[in-house]
Amino acid sequence: MATWNEQLQDEIIQRQTDLMRLASAKGAELIAILDETDAAIKALLLDIDSAGGVTADQFAAIRAVQQRIAEIRAEAWGQIELQLQRDAEEIAIVAADGSRAAVIAATSGEIVPAVVSGQALLSIAATRPFEGRLLSEWAAKMRDDDISRLSKAIQLGMVRGQNPVQIAKDIYEAGGVADISRNGLAALVRTATNHIGNEAAALFAAQNPYIKRERYAATLDARTTLVCAGLDGQVFDVGEGPRPPLHYQCRSTRVPFIDAAYLGQRPAVDATQAGARRAYRGRRACWRVRQVPQKVFPRTNRANPSRDHIPAMAIEAQRADAGRYPWPDAWQAVPGRRAEDRPIHRRKRAHPDARRAAQTTRRRIPAREHRLRRIT
Question: How many Cβ atoms sit within 10 Å of the Cβ of residue 58?
Answer without folding.
Answer: 16
